[in-house]
Amino acid sequence: MNQQAQVSDRQPGPAARPSGGPTKVFAPWTEADAKPLVEFVDVRKVFGDFTAVNGVSLKIYPREFFALLGPSGCGKTTLLRMLAGFETPTSGKILLDGQDISGIPANRRPINMMFQSYALFPHLSVAANIAFGLKRSALPRQEIAGRTEEMLQLVQMTQFAHRKPHQLSGGQRQRVALARALAKNPKLLLLDEPLGALDAKLREQTQFELMNIQEKLGTTFVIVTHDQEEAMTVSSRIGLMSHGSLAQVATPPQIYENPVSRFVADFIGDVNIIEGKSGGVIARDGEEFVEFHRPGDESVFVARASEPVAPQTDCCLAVRPEKIAVTREKPADAANALTGHVHDIAYVGNLSTYHVRLADGSIVKAQEANRRRIANREITWEDEVWLSWTPGAGVVLAR
Amino acid sequence: MNRFRRTLLIAVPYLWLLLFFLAPFIIVVKISLSDTAIAQPPYVPVFDPALGWAGLKDFLSALDLESYVWLTQDSLYINAFLESLKIALISTSLCLLVAFPLALGIARTSPKRRPVLLMMVILPFWTSFLIRVYAWIGILRSEGFLNQFLQWTGVISEPLAIINTPVAVYVGIVYSYLPFMVLPIYATLEKMDGSLLEAAIDLGCSRTSAFWRITLPLAAPGIIAGCFLVFIPAMGEFVIPDLLGGTGTLMMGKTLWSEFFSNRDWPVASAVAIVLLLFLVVPIVAFQRMLERQQEAAR
Amino acid sequence: MNTRFTWFNATALAFGFSFLYLPILLLVIYSFNASKLVTVWAGFSTKWYGELLHNQAMLDAAWVTLRVAFLSATLSALLGTMAAYVLVRIGRFRGRSLFSGMIYSPLVMPDVIIGLSLLLLFIALGVPRGMMTVVLAHTTIGMCYAAVVVSSRLVSFDNSLEEAALDLGCSPLDAFFSVTLPIIAPSVVAGWLLAFTLSMDDLVIASFTTGPGATTLPIKIYSAIRLGVSPEINALSTILIAIVAVGVIAATLMQSRVTARGGDQG
C-alpha cells in the first residue's frame, strides 16, 4: 500500500483542477451560491424488512467526479440505481437541476449508466452498441453516425467498430461501455464498479483514462466502488457509506487526514486505534489541539480533533502507521511517545512495518521507508523501542 | 414494468392453462361421479344451467361414487394398477442400469466429444415415438431379428416368446425413455470436479469405493430426476403396453383407453384417470419442487 | 470429470449406442427389402417408397399433421415465451405456485389423462372436434415444454442488458424487442422445434381430441401397426427419420458456426 504517497501526490490533485480563473480552485461545495446538479433530500429505500438506504442527504455539483465508496451491502449501488431510475426511493426526494425526478422513468432521464457487467448487447457490433441510445433519440441519421464515430475516437476503438463484444478484451469492452453511456451526452454519468473486472495494472491505467475523459468532456461523473484506492485516485470528493448512511463526505486528502469517525479512519488506509479519554483543549503554535489520556499511562498525548470533543469523553486516538517514528532512544522533544517491544517486522520492499507490543499487550504499528539495505537495519525482534509522533499526526475521535 | 402490461403478460398464459389444463380435470372429476347411460353424451346427469338452483341441487344429488366402488370390486382394475406399478418400477430400475454407465462414459470422454455423444443420445428422441416402438416389434417377434439371430447362433432351438409379455414392455420403456434418464445424470456427472475422485483416492479409497462413496452420492440429484422422468409417464403409458405387451399386459393407461373407446364407459374411464392422477400427484409435486429448487439455485 | 480411456467406458458407450441405434438401423435397412415379409431379406428395392407416394390417405394424414404441428408449435413458442418470462422475471404474484405447477406437471402427466380430460372439456363446451381441437390440445402441452426451454435461457440472461436498454432511452416494450428477444431467440426456436416434434409425434392426445376428417399421421401409423408389421411403414419411418436427422444435423452445424463466431455470451 502506498496510500500516503498517492495522497501527498494529489496535493492539490483534481480537487483543485482549475475551472474558472487560473487561480481559482475547483471546490464548488465550499461556495455558498453554487447550484448542485444532483441533490438527495433525506432519501430512504427499504426492501422488505431491509433498509438499504437510510436517510441520505447529499449534493453533487456540476463537473464533479464523485465517488460513492463503502463495503458491499452499504447501499451505494442502491443509491446509484435510484439516480438511474431503476429503483424508486421509499421516501425523500432526488432533484436533478433542482427538479424532482422521482416520477421520471429510467428511459426519459438525461442520465446514463455504465454497468458493472458492462451490459454490452452481445448481438450488436461495437458501433451499433454505441449508436443504440442515439437511435432512440430524434437525431437525424447523419448526426448519429457522426456522433458514433466521435465516441469511437474518444475511446480509441475506431478500428474495432465492427467487432462483436465477445471478440473484445476486458479493457476494450470497458471502453465501449463508457462510449455507449457517453454517446447521448448525458448531464450525469453513473459508473457502477466500472473497473472491477479489470486486472490491477490495467485498472490503474484506466483510472487515469477515465479522469482524462471526464476532464475533457466536463460531464459530471458519479462512480460506485468498494476500492478505496480507486476512489482516492479518481474522485474530487468521496462519499463514504456505511449501513445505508453517509459516514463522511469530503475530498480524498480530507477524508484521509481528518476522518470523523473510527469507521472512516479504519476503512480508509491503515490506522492505529488507541482507546482512552479526552482531556482539555490546548493551543500550540497557533493551532488548537486536544489532550488525550491512555488508561494506566501517566503521559499526556496531544492530537487534533476533526470535531469538538468535550473533556473526559471516552474516545480514541487514531494515528496512521506511517506517521509514527521508531527509535531506540526516547526522543527528547516528542509530543507523543510510547514504549514497547518489537513483536514483528513486515518487510514489503519499499516499506517496513514494525508491530510493537506495548506493556498492556496491545499492538501499535509503525511504518518506515527502507532507505537502507535490510542488513544495516538497526532495530530487530524483541528490541525495546520508542514510538513517537507529532501533535498534528493523530486525530481524536469520539464517534 | 407497466402494471397493465404486466397483468396482461401473466394473464394470457395463465388463463390458457386454467382453461385447457386445470378446468378439464374438474370436468373429469365430475364425470367420474356420474352414471353411465346410453345417451349422447353417454352419462347422466348433465348439468343444465337453465334450471337454476333447483337444477344444480338435483344435479349434485345425482352424483355418486359408484364408478369408484366399481373399480374396487372388479379385480381387473386392481390388477391393472399393480401391474402398472410393477412394470413402471422394474422399467425405471432397468433404465437406470443402462443409462448410468452410458452417462458416466460420456462424462468421461474428452470435453470435445461430449456434445456429439450427447446429441447422439438425444437424436432418437426427436424421431417418432411410435416408430421407435414399432422397430422393436420387428426385433422381438417370434420370427423377428432377435430370435433369428439366437437360432442362427444355436443358443436356442425354439423361438423365445418375448413379444406380448411384460419383458417386451420393459424393453420398450427403457428404450423410449433412455434419454430422459441419461441427460439429468450426465448433467450432474459433468459438473463433478475430477479432483474429488483424486482426493478420495489420495485419502485411501480404492477406485471402486471412490465410485460408491463419491461419484454415486454426487450424481444422486440427477438419478432422482431421471427416475421421476421415467417412472411418472411409464405409469400411465399406453402405446408401449398396447403394441408390445399384447392383451396379456394390463396397465392403467390401456385400461383407461379401452374403457373409453371400446366400452364407452366414460364415468369409469374418468374414475380410472382420477385414481391414476391421485397416485401420481405425490411424485409429480415432489418433482416440481425439485425443479423449482434447482432453478432458484441457478439464479 | 477425469477423461481417462478405460475399457469400462468404451464398453458402456458401445453397448448404450448400439442399443439406441440398432433397432432404427434394422428398421431403415428393411424398408429397402423387396419382400413383403419384413424380417426376411429378399433383395434391394425401393418399391415400398413408390407405394407410399400413392397412398392418398397417408399423404392426407401427413398434411394434416404438418399443419397441426406448425400451428401448435407457433402458438406454443409464443405462449411459452410469455410463460417463461412470467416464471423467471416477474417475482411474486398471487397464484404463482399454481402457475408454475401448471407449467411443470404436463411434462410428466400421462398422455391418456391429458387426452381424456381435454376431450371432456371440448364436449362440455360444445366445441366441434377436428383439427382445431388437436391444435389447442398440442399447444397446451407444447407451451409448457417451450416455457421450460426458454426459461432455462432467461435464468442466465443478464438483467442489466435490459436495464442498459432502458437507460439508453428504450421503452420497456422496445427493450424487449430490440435486446431481450434477439438474445433469447435461439431458445425460442428450440422451444418451437420441440413443440413441433411433440405435435408430430403425438398419438394419444390426438386420438382423444380429434374428430372426423382430421386423422393425423401417428393415428394412421398406429392403426397400420396394429394390423401387423408392413414394409410400407418401414419406408414411412425411414423418411421421417431422415427428415429428423437432416434437421438435427443442420441445426447442429448452424449452432457450431454460431459458436465458431463466438456465439452469445450472455
Describe this structure in a few short sentences.
The complex is a heterotrimer of chains A (399), B (299) and C (266). Chain B has 299 residues and is an all-alpha fold.
Description:
The complex is a heterotrimer of chains A (399), B (299) and C (266). In chain A, the strands form 4 sheets. Chain A has a 6-stranded mixed sheet, sandwiched between helices. A 5-stranded mixed beta barrel of chain A has the order 11-12-13-20-14. In chain A, a hairpin with a 3-residue loop joins strand 16 (336-347) and strand 17 (351-358). Chain A is elongated and about 75 Å long. The model of chain A is unreliable at 1-21 (pLDDT under 50). Chain A folds into 2 domains: 3-110 and 186-262, Rossmann fold, CATH 3.40.50; 270-397, Nucleic acid-binding proteins (OB fold (Dihydrolipoamide Acetyltransferase, E2P), Beta Barrel). In chain A, helix 3 (126-135) crosses helix 4 and helix 3 (126-135) runs parallel beside helix 5. Chain A has 399 residues and is α+β, with helices and mostly antiparallel strands. Chain A has helices at 3-9, 76-84, 126-135, 141-154, 170-182, 200-217, 228-234, 252-257, 262-267, and strands spanning 38-47, 50-60, 65-69, 91-96, 99-100, 111-114, 188-192, 220-225, 237-242, 245-250, 272-284, 287-293, 300-305, 314-319, 325-327, 336-347, 351-358, 363-369, 384-389, 394-397. Chain A is built from 9 helices and 20 strands. By secondary structure, chain B is an all-alpha fold. Chain B has a domain at 70-264: MetI-like (MetI-like fold). Helices cover 76% and strands 1% of the residues of chain B. Chain B contains 13 helices and 2 strands, in the order αββαααααααααααα. In chain B, strands 1-2 form a two-stranded antiparallel sheet. In chain B, a hairpin with a 6-residue loop joins strand 1 and strand 2 (43-44). With 266 residues, chain C is an all-alpha fold. Helix content of chain C is 76%, strand content 0%. Chain C is built from 11 helices and no strands. The two termini of chain C are 25 Å apart. Classes of the chains: A alpha+beta (399), B mainly alpha (299), C mainly alpha (266). Chains in contact: A-C, B-C. At the B-C interface, helix 1, helix 4, helix 5, helix 6 and helix 8 of B face helix 1, helix 3, helix 4, helix 5 and helix 6 of C.
